[in-house]
């Protein structure tokens, strides 16, 4: 690593971080768990929220969200701005079928600097580790 090309710094998306964990649950259950953890309303059936591109809403923790793309049980990509941030970043969550369950993958782009990247790495790692511990 050098100062010209530090880990996590990209030319196109600023600072970014990725974290993933495989949980011993179905893809549907993993999807429900991560959506609940993010405070994003989600349910099955005719009353399910419709998340089309440009849909905006507030998560239960006060984060502002604008949907960029969405595929139930698989992908949600959004502009995400926690209540205490003065800018929005891009947050992508994928849930992928795995041999031993389902992998939840979090990719977070447009972070402001290396310190914020590390904070978000710790945040997403703790969130996913907590989900994994809840089913172990």
Describe the structure.
With 136 residues, the chain is of the alpha+beta class. The protein has one domain (15-135): 2-Layer Sandwich (Alpha-D-Glucose-1,6-Bisphosphate, Chain A, domain 4), CATH 3.30.530. The chain contains two helices and six strands, in the order E-H-E-E-E-E-E-H. The protein has a six-stranded antiparallel sheet, with helices on one face.
Core attributes:
136 residues; alpha+beta; Alpha-D-Glucose-1,6-Bisphosphate, Chain A, domain 4; 6-stranded antiparallel sheet; 6 strands; globular
Helix and strand content put the structural class at alpha+beta
* Highest-level CATH class: Alpha Beta
What name does CATH use for the topology?
A: Alpha-D-Glucose-1,6-Bisphosphate, Chain A, domain 4
Query: What is the residue-mean pLDDT, rounded to a whole number?
Result: 92
Question: Could you give a short description of this structure?
Answer:
This protein is an alpha+beta fold and 136 residues long. The chain has helices at residues 27-38, 114-135, and strands at 15-23, 56-58, 64-71, 75-81, 89-98, 101-111.
List strands and helices in order, with pairings.
Blueprint: E1 15-23, H1 27-38, E2 56-58, E3 64-71, E4 75-81, E5 89-98, E6 101-111, H2 114-135
Antiparallel strand pairs: 1-6, 2-3, 3-4, 4-5, 5-6
């Amino acid at each position: 690593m050098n100062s010209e090309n530090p880990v996590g710094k990209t030319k196109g998306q600023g600072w970014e971080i990725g974290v993933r964990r495989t949980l011993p649950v179905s893809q549907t259950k993993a999807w429900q768990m991560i959506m609940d953890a993010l405070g994003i309303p989600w349910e099955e059936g005719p009353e399910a929220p419709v998340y089309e591109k440009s849909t905006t809403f507030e998560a239960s923790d006060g984060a502002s969200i604008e949907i960029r793309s969405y595929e139930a049980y698989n992908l949600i990509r959004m502009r995400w701005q926690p209540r205490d941030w003065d800018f929005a970043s891009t947050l992508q969550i994928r849930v992928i079928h795995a041999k031993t369950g389902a992998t939840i993958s979090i990719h977070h782009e447009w972070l402001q600097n290396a310190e914020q990247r590390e904070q978000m790495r710790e945040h997403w790692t703790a969130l996913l580790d907590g989900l994994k511990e809840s089913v172990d």
